[in-house]
Amino acid sequence: MLTGKFISFEGPDGAGKTTALNSIVADLTPQLNDNLVVTREPGGNRISEAIRDIILDRKNTEMDDRTEALLYAAARRQHIVETIMPALKSGKMVLCDRYVDSSVAYQGAGREIGVDEVYQMNLFATAGLLPDLTIYFDVPSEIGLRRIMTHRTDEINRLDVEQLSFHKRVRASYLKIAEQNPQRIQVIDATQSKAKVVSDVEKIIYQANKGLFNKSGE
């Protein structure tokens, strides 16, 4: 039985999701302590991080699109089994930087190999496990790419260097996923200041997880 809370953070490249997540973690850690688990995809454990290195390596330009999607799903499965599920069974809050929606948006729509096909692949990999809450950081593709080139010049990966049309397909897919899943996904305007974005996200998290915070002594 899962007694914890699973929250994923999603957004197109340059949305500032990871930067905001770091600030949110700093604010939540004193309240949740060991009841907070912070992880990422692809990654989160030794095997999944090794797969991440292969996927994002800019030298792997010959990687087939379906191979890429399968590698993401494989990393996700190992992540669930080794990291996410044990934490949820222990009653912890899991904050995950990217999850299934990323694969649907990036590989399904961005790579144009099929949204439904990628979703079904990940349905098998996850055995149907979805977050209790997803925070989607929305930003126009042009702004996101400009942020990447300005602030992440030493960390640009294989997906970052795709054409603008690719990133526009990704964003459009994310917005459609959010529209189809209003009970799970909360949309944040990521063009706002970092402080406003962090404040908006924390309000959503507190409101959706009062019991967990109360249990932790807030």
Question: Which helices and strands appear, and what pairs or packs with what?
Answer:
Elements: E1 5-10, H1 17-32, E2 36-40, H2 46-56, H3 65-89, E3 93-97, H4 100-110, H5 115-126, E4 133-138, H6 141-151, H7 164-180, E5 185-189, H8 194-208, H9 210-215
Parallel strand pairs: 1-3, 1-4, 2-3, 4-5
Largest pleated sheet: 5 strands, parallel
**CATH class label:** Alpha Beta
Task: Sketch the topology as an H/E string, one letter per element.
Answer: EHEHHEHHEHHEHH
Radius of gyration: 17 Å
| Tally of DSSP β-strands | 5
Structural class: alpha/beta
Number of domains: 1
Strand order of the largest sheet: 2-3-1-4-5
Instruction: Name the CATH homologous superfamily.
Output: P-loop containing nucleotide triphosphate hydrolases
**Can you name the CATH architecture?**
3-Layer(aba) Sandwich
Percent range of helical residues? 55-70%
Spans where pLDDT lies below 50 across 5 or more residues = none
Distance linking N and C termini: 25 Å
Residue-averaged pLDDT: 92
Q: If helices are DSSP runs of H or I spanning 4 or more residues, what is the number of helices?
A: 9
Shape: globular
Here the CATH topology equals Rossmann fold
Q: Your description of this structure?
A:
- This protein is an alpha/beta fold and 218 residues long.
- It has a single domain (5-215), classed as P-loop containing nucleotide triphosphate hydrolases (Rossmann fold, 3-Layer(aba) Sandwich), CATH 3.40.50.300.
- It is built from 9 helices and 5 strands.
- It has helices at residues 17-32, 46-56, 65-89, 100-110, 115-126, 141-151, 164-180, 194-208, 210-215, and strands spanning 5-10, 36-40, 93-97, 133-138, 185-189.
- A 5-stranded parallel beta sheet has the order 2-3-1-4-5, with helices on both faces.
- It catalyses: dTMP + ATP = dTDP + ADP.
- One of its GO terms (cellular component) is cytosol.
- This is Thymidylate kinase.
